[in-house]
Amino acid sequence: MPWMLPETLGLMLLGMALFRAGFFSGGWARRHYWAVAAAGAGVTIPLYVALAGWMSATHFDPILLLLTEPLHLTLLRPALAMAEAALVILFVTSGRARWLAARLTAAGRMAFSNYLGTSIVCTLIFYGYGLGWFGRLERWQLYPVVFAIWIAMLGWSQPWLERFAYGPAEWLWRSMARGRWQSLRRI
Length: 187
Prior knowledge:
mainly alpha, 2 domains, 7 helices, 74% helix
C-alpha cells in the first residue's frame, strides 16, 4: 500500500535512531526510560480516551474516523509505542520476574516466526476457511483470543530457542539471505 510508505519509512528511521542511541539495549539511565514512558503515556492515553469517547458518541462516523486517523497514526501510536517499549525495557532490566523477562526476550528473538504464526492462527480463527469468527465477536470477546495467542508465543519461544539457534522463519530468512542453509541446531 503506497500511501503507508511515508509512515513506514518514518517509523523505521525512528527505530534506527533509537537503536543507535542505545534505547533498545537498555543502555539509557533508568530515569530516561521513565521519562519516555511518562511523557508518551501521559500525553497519548488521555487523548486516546477522549478520541474513543468521541468516536463512540458519534457511532464511529466514517468521516470522523478518516479525519482523526492521521492524528492517531502519525502522533499517538508512535509515542505510545515508545512508552510501552520503555516500560518493557525497565521491566526486563529490573531483574524482577526473570522467568517472564526470559520468555519475552525469547519471543522477541523469534519475532518473525511469532508474527507469521499469529497471522496464520488469526486467519484460521477469523476467516471463512477457518472458524469464520470475523464480525461475530464483540470487542471485549477478542481479549481471550489475544491472551491465548500471547500465552502460546511466550510458551513456545523459549523452549524452541533452548534447542535451536533461531526461530524457524528467522532460520529460513538467514539461509535465503546468505545463499546457503544455516545450521539450525544449537552448537
